Known about the structure:
The chain is mostly beta strands. It has helices spanning 2-21, 161-168, 292-295, and strands at residues 40-45, 48-54, 64-70, 74-83, 89-100, 107-117, 123-132, 144-148, 155-160, 179-189, 198-210, 220-221, 227-232, 234-237, 248-252, 257-261, 264-267, 274-281, 307-315. The protein folds into two domains: 23-215, Jelly Rolls (Sandwich), CATH 2.60.120.200; 227-315, Immunoglobulin-like (Sandwich). The strands form four sheets. It has a six-stranded mixed β-sheet with strand order 1-4-10-6-7-8, with no helix packed on it. The two termini are 38 Å apart.
Amino acid sequence: MVEGIAVRIAILSLLLGACALAQEFILNGDFEQPIEPAWTVDSGGHARATIERDSALHSDPDMELRVHIGLGPGYAGIGQTAFVPGCRLRFSAELCLYAHHYEPGNWSAASCRVLYLDSSLTTLGETRICYWHQNCPWQSTTTLHIVRTMDSSWQTWGFDIERELEDFLPGVDPEQVRAVRVVLKDTAETSCPPPFDSVRVLADNVSLMALTGMEEGRPTAYSSRPTTTVCRGVLRIEDGRRKTVDRADLMEITGRKVMDLRPGHNDVRHVAPGVYLVVTPSPLPSPPEGERRKERGLRPAESGRREAVRKVVIQR
């Protein structure tokens, strides 16, 4: 009896510890509240800048962020700094990036930047997910990982920061990281007068979570924004008899797995209301051991493993 109680207490302690670690460090990452004061707004130059929330940026009913510049050189963006207990973190965001200009020899870029800071808030390194038109001078170094996307539609990005530093930022000492700054920014460089086309960042569900040990941690980028399904109590997965899916995972936006899903009807009445992702693994085999390191990078079009993603809103 005493041993049984002790076991229950130990299990409860582990669960409470895991819940404590599953901490969200980004405030108002879904942009359902006004941008400020959680985010700091910054702009400069001669470009016409627009930074706003809008519910019409996607077919779902919630708010997304738009950062847009046009008609000249300059920059605009928002940023937020979070103090963190270490590098066992997972960053994720839904992004729609685009940049274009008319004048040859100039460049423009839309970006989501994850900066790693020390205790004095000095930048140690950066992961920069970006879309640029042409002539952009950005290049990867030992402290800057440039991840270029050529897809201007919605994408869901996610990566394990500890692994990102290990694989792509050898110039950053993880032991010195005390804060992470997320910046959503448009940049346009031109020596010519307008017309200048447009640069824009659309964003939603920006998240920085402490890993609990349950997450896979492998960086992932999906080729398009997930479609949205609203369900109450029961979530239906495509019939396995059609051989299109054998299993799927229900995951939080942050990448934490919630439960296994099977073909047919799945009871989700025990799942807390909110926004989730249904991720269906590809039937493609795992890559050889020598290629797994490459697969860790943020490559939406180059990774051999493909995954179908569906956004699900669970309601009571």
